[in-house]
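In the previous chapter we treated chains in isolation. Here, by contrast, the input contains two separate entities that must be folded as one system, with a combined length of 594 residues.
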Amino acid sequence: MIRRIRRGLALVCLGLLAAGAFVFGQEPILAFSLDESQIAVPQGGEAVAILRVENGSVYPGEDLEPILEVEGLTLLTEPEAIEVLAPFGAAAITLRLSASAELPLGPSSQTLGVLYTYCIGELCYQISEEIPFTVTVEPPSEAPVEVPVALPVEPARPFWLRLGGLLAGLLVVAAAIFLRRAGRARWTPYAVVILFVLGGLAYGVVLNQHEQAQGIGAVLCTSCVGIEEAQRGEPELTPMGIATIEGIGEEIELLVFHAVWCHACPYVAAMVEEVARHNPRIRYRSVDVGETPELAERSGVIRSGRTVVPAVLRVDTGEIVFGAEKLEARLIDLLEGEP
Amino acid sequence: MRLGSRRRIAQAAGLLLGLFGVTGIGMTHLIFPGLHCYACPLAVTVCPIGLIQNLVVFGTIPYFWIGAIVAYGLIAGRGFCGWFCPFGTLNDLLAFRKVRIRDSVSYSKFAILIGTLVAAWVFADTMFCKLCPAASIEASIPYLFLGVAKVNQPFLIHMATLGATLVGMVLIARFWCRYLCPMGAILSLFNRVSLLHLRLAPDRCTGCRVCADSCPMGLDPHIDHDNHNCIKCGECVEACKLGALSLRYGPQGKR
């Protein structure tokens, strides 16, 4: 009888783990979704859409800025744009779209960009996300625009619920180990632990955590493993450096390669931004190696099989500067190099 | 084949997996069942300690990591330290002095583990990696020769921790595994349920302590055969001529 109960318990645990894998979920840092993936807008008129955002992390998201770069379609800035989204918080932004009278009729696929800042302690990263949607341009209408009410939203799967599920699972494993140590049970506790392992791995894969692990391993962040010192704070150019940068006469494009978990990358990105601020001929673009590994590979931001970040590539010469140490001098060398 | 020879082959396999990047396959999704730096130019696996620090920094509930670690705990527990971990193998090669120190001192590795996680949270950085002697050997030194690293302050800190650890290993067998390894601390939690385990036949044991003298971890296998620190290396099994100790694979019975 006791054996049957134990087997039953093991099956219940299996069921709970399997169900848990699909019930609870983990989103990227900030998850965005539009209430309507198809937005109808009249020629020369306006339409309104609700953008929902959920913070699935322990740190706040800041300065959320929706960006729409579509000819003939303008995003009217809303006063309620989010300045700070608390950890595990959720919110909704009302987007007001204005279409020009020349916009051709019919549906078209567009992308809404969202720029936001994500800070871990004193380190901040600027992250951009893209949300695809369809715009259907309709004949001009006289009817007034209906503005839906963006009700405050609660996170669908709060952090404590997910953490609670994991702790409950660990408790089951601890109970299984206790059963084994109590003596009579031999295989049932092992079966429970095996089910926990399979559940954990399966759920991790569902959440793409295996890719996250691979991504962390595949990219060498020079400051993370102590190959160079992490540079923090505001980067400052010396007066001589500024004079040299201002004297550069040619058009130069730089690619700044970074990874989300790279601690030296924000410093390098800020330094390149500072350089570009002093000379409008110098343009730069940020590249997240996790999102576009093939571009990193094509650009040669790889040393000994590892994508190394931070890295700054001068596009026309193919020259690369790795790391953040003595960056000003090395960036100037990079900029002064012959194309 | 002798148990010692089998273990050397398994350790060679661990080293091979650690350096499998020589084939050019690149990083995989596999979490290494030991301490092996993912920044190593030839690594194809992810360091469990480096990964968990990153996950702590990002506030990720580490389901995949926990699944893999519990699996390793179940498969062999600290057997991975004795049979597979490349840094454990280095400890093995320098295990000249099998000294005995109070068992309670070995809990220091749990302090290192907790400190590693707390530091990751507080500083939002992989602080342990900046001190890790495995990273010193597997990342700092190779990257110095590859021209990515320089002799700077982080490099010298790495060399200092490596030097101190090597001295510790020479003075106390398996010094790193006994007192400092956070991965060893995690695996030790599973030692008493792991499928690879040491079995004692009490009717054959005369209490001669030859097993205790041979143990690189400074344990008493004839008294406490499923100690949380046992790396299941089998040195005691080979030392006991009466066959009182054996390494088994399967569910452990009543203690």
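Chain A is about 35% helix and 30% strand. Confidence is low (pLDDT under 50) at residues 21-27, 150-156 of chain A. Compare these points with the single-chain example from earlier in the chapter.
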